[in-house]
Amino acid sequence: MNKSVFHKLSYGVYVVSTWDEGRATGCVANSIMQITSDPATIAVSMNHNNYTHSCIEQTKKFAVSILSEQSDPSIIGTFGFQSGKEVNKFEQVEYELKEYMPVLKDCCGYIVCEVIDKLETNTHTVFLGRVVEGDLVNNEKEMTYNYYHKVVKGKSPKNAPTYIEEEATKEEIKEAKYVCGICGYVYDGEIPFEELPDDYVCPICKQPKRVFKKQ
Fold it and tell me: Rubredoxin-like domain spans which residues (predicted)?
């Protein structure tokens, strides 16, 4: 089977957030879809290993911040490549409360849900959420999964439902020979990688220069 066919399916890039005993937490997700319009219901696929998964199980509520093409890429690194069990992710971003749920300010829209049901798989839980609030924040174009891969040049976290283990493509390696060993970001800047300052960090996961690997 050619797993690349899954890249042709349409996905967005979102931050799913909830509460951890009074502390805001969340993670990146890309498998979210509307199930019904009346009553408005959406489905969110969450890996069992994600700390956010257990927090949603406890609170029975979650919010979805819809990232735009103009959203800071470091948001994906903060929420996609760190664990909320070890890091207070919301210390690094601005957010506000919508229906008492934490929502990123750097997004183009948000949805707040109450969990009404769930479907279990071997690795993921699909939470069904009844929408209690939602609104547009601005008119920026939403970030798609394809845009994240092709333009931002990021890779999926291993806990993502759409994760496919892959190496940098030949085209990427031809343009840039250094790849982040944490998130898979391919450096393609005009300045040779060797000449970057020692304090350079990956724009996606904020890891130091030393984690980059020469391909």
Answer: 175-215
Give exposure, 142-174, as e/b (b: 16+ Cβ within 10 Å): bbbbebbeeebbbbbbebbbbeeeeebeeebee
**The domain spanning residue 62 has which CATH number?**
2.30.110.10
Q: Is the pTM of this model over 0.90?
A: no
**The total number of structural domains that make up the chain:** 2
119: left (phi over 0), alpha (psi -120 to 50) or beta: beta
* Helix, coil or strand: residue 134: strand
User: Is residue 153, in this structure, part of any structural domain at all?
Assistant: no
Residue range(s) defining the domain that contains residue 175: 167-214
pLDDT at 187: 85
Angle at 14 between CA 20 and CA 172, to 5 degrees: 125
- Report yes or no on 116 lying in a domain: yes
Distance CA 89, CA 158 (A): 18
Predicted confidence band of residue 135 (pLDDT cuts 50, 70, 90): very high
Q: How confident is the model at residue 190, as a pLDDT? A: 85
pLDDT value, residue 172: 45
Give per-residue pLDDT as tens, 42-96.
Answer: 999 999 999 999 999 999 999 999 999 999 888 888 898 888 888 899 998 999 9
In this structure, are 88 and 133 located in the same domain?
yes
CATH of the domain at 177: 2.20.28.10
**Residue 4 falls inside a structural domain:** no
